[in-house]
Amino acid sequence: MAQTIQAVVGYTGEIVFDPSKPDGTPRKLLDVTRIHSLGWRAGLDIRTGLRKAYADFLSTLCGVPGSAHAGNDSL
After folding, report:
1. d(CA 44, CA 50)
2. With 71 labelled, which of 41, 52, 58, 65 sits at a CA distance of 20 to 30 A?
């Protein structure tokens, strides 16, 4: 996930993982059977959602128009 966010926002620095620290929240798996039975499906994949959210952040909070500044798509 960190590398995906790095690509979306265009961060070119190094990401360093410290294996001596906890690795976030334990994995939680959700059963999507019920919501699928009601007809709902995700409209975006994670990369597209992150890209759109970051473009909105840049536009809304930082005053950067458009999504041209929303990183690259190399991953």
Report:
1. 9
2. 41
Q: Letter for the amino acid at 17?
A: F
Cα 2 to Cα 37: distance, rounded to the nearest angstrom: 32
Question: What does pTM read for this prediction?
Answer: 0.64
Residue 40 burial by CB count (10 A; 0-12/13-18/19+): exposed, middle or buried?
Answer: exposed
Which helix (H) or strand (E) is 8 found in, with range? Answer: helix 2-9
pLDDT in tens, the chain (75 residues): 889 999 999 999 999 988 888 877 777 788 889 999 999 998 999 999 999 999 988 888 877 666 454 455 444
- In the prediction, which pLDDT does 60 show? 87
Contacting residues for 70 by C-beta, under 8 A, at least 6 apart? 8, 9, 10, 51, 54, 55, 58
